[in-house]
C-alpha cells in the first residue's frame, strides 16, 4: 500500500495571521514541506512572501479554492507529490474560503493524501472590533481540529476569555491556543485530524460579499503621504496588503481592520491589493490618492 502524504489545512478569516503562522512553521519544522496557496486578490502577495523561504510551492490563482478551483487543487496536489515528494503538505486558503467542501474533497477524492488536520487562525482583535461571526467564519471554526486565537497582544485578557467561550460554542472539541504572531510549538498542529468527521458533501453556494482590486506602480512613494493614506482608508476596506517602495527601501505592507504595519522586504516594485465589501465604490478615489503619494 502506498503511504498517503499528510495534508494540513490552514484556514481563518482575512488577515487573521495565516501567512504569519506559515512563516513560523517553515522556520521551525525540519521536514520537507510543500505549500499550496490560494489567494483572493489577482496579485499573489502571500506567495511572494513565502517564496523567499526556499520551499516548494504551488499557487492556485485568484478565486476561492473552496469551490471554483477544486479541480485545480486536486491537480496541484498530485503534481507536487510527483515532483517534490514532500513529507507534509500545508494548504493556506483565502480568508474567504469555507473549508468544508475542501475537507470533503481531500478525504474522498484525493487518494494520495490524508487530512492531517484543519488549523483555524482567529484574529482576536478583529473579533473585538467586529464581534459578529458570519457564516464563513462559523464554517471555518466548525471545521477546526485546532484553533489559534491569534493577536492576543492586541486584546485585554478579560476579552480573550469571552472570545474563547464564543468559539467554543461553535466547536466544542478543538483546543484553543492563545498565540502572538502564530508562535506555537508546531507539533501541536500536526497529526490532529478528528477520527470522526461528517462525510456529507456540503451544499455549497458560496457568494463572497467581498471584492478586490489591485494597484501596481514603478514609482517611489512618499512615506508620510502613504501613512496618512493608510490611516484614513474607508472602513469598508477590511484588508489591504502588498509591497510599497519608499525612498530608503521597499516594505511589505499589511492592513487589517484599520491597523497596519510595514516590514522591510526584498521586492522589485510596488503592488497592492485592496479587499473589502463594495470596494469598487472606493477604487477610483483610492487610486487617485495613491497617485498623489508618488514622488
Ligand atoms: N499585533 C499582531 N499582529 C499580528 C499577529 N499575527 C499576525 N499579525 C499581523 O497581521 C497582519 C496579517 O497577517 P497575515 O499573516 O498576513 O494574515 P493572513 O491571515 O495570512 O491574511 P490573508 O491571507 O490576507 O487572509 C500582518 O500585519 C501581521 O504582521 C499578532 O499576533 N499580533
Automatic annotation (TrEMBL):
Q: Where is the CobW C-terminal domain?
A: 210-294
Task: List the InterPro entries hit by this protein, alphabetically.
Answer: CobW-likC_sf, CobW-like_C, CobW/HypB/UreG_nucleotide-bd, P-loop_NTPase, Zinc-reg_GTPase_activator
Q: Which UniProt keywords apply?
A: Chaperone, Hydrolase, Nucleotide-binding
Catalysed reaction, written as an equation? GTP + H2O = GDP + phosphate + H(+)
- What's the domain of life for this entry? Bacteria
Pfam families (UniProt xref) = cobW, CobW_C
The Swiss-Prot or TrEMBL record describes its family as follows: Belongs to the SIMIBI class G3E GTPase family. ZNG1 subfamily.
Q: What's the protein called, per UniProt?
A: GTP-binding protein
**Organism in which the protein naturally occurs:** Trichocoleus desertorum GB2-A4
Amino acid at each position: 500500500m502506498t503511504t498517503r502524504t499528510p495534508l494540513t489545512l490552514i484556514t481563518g478569516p482575512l488577515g487573521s495571521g495565516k501567512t504569519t503562522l506559515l512563516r513560523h512553521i517553515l522556520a521551525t519544522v525540519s521536514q520537507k514541506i510543500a505549500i499550496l496557496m490560494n489567494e483572493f486578490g489577482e496579485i499573489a502577495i502571500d506567495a511572494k512572501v513565502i517564496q523567499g523561504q526556499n520551499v516548494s510551492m504551488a499557487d492556485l490563482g485568484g478565486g476561492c479554492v473552496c469551490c471554483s478551483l477544486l479541480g485545480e487543487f486536486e491537480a496541484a496536489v498530485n503534481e507536487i507529490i510527483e515532483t517534490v515528494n514532500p513529507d507534509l503538505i500545508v494548504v493556506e486558503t483565502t480568508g474567504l474560503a469555507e473549508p468544508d467542501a475542501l475537507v470533503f474533497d481531500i478525504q474522498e477524492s484525493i487518494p494520495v493524501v490524508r487530512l492531517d488536520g484543519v488549523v483555524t487562525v482567529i484574529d482576536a482583535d478583529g473579533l473585538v472590533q467586529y464581534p459578529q461571526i458570519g457564516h464563513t467564519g462559523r464554517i471555518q471554526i466548525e471545521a477546526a481540529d485546532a484553533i489559534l486565537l491569534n493577536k492576543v497582544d492586541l486584546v485585554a485578557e478579560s476579552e480573550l476569555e469571552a472570545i474563547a467561550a464564543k468559539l467554543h460554542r461553535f466547536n466544542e472539541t478543538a483546543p484553543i491556543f492563545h498565540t502572538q504572531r502564530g508562535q506555537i510549538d508546531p507539533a501541536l498542529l500536526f497529526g490532529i485530524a478528528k477520527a470522526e468527521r461528517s462525510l456529507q458533501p456540503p451544499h455549497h453556494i458560496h457568494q463572497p460579499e467581498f471584492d478586490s482590486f489591485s494597484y501596481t506602480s514603478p514609482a517611489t512613494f512618499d512615506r508620510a503621504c502613504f501613512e496618512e493614506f493608510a490611516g484614513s482608508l474607508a472602513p469598508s476596506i477590511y484588508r489591504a496588503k502588498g509591497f510599497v517602495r519608499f525612498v530608503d527601501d521597499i516594505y511589505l505592507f499589511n492592513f487589517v481592520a484599520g491597523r497596519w504595519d510595514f516590514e522591510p522586504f526584498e521586492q522589485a516594485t510596488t503592488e497592492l491589493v485592496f479587499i473589502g465589501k463594495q470596494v469598487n465604490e472606493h477604487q477610483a478615489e483610492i487610486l487617485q490618492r495613491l497617485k498623489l503619494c508618488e514622488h
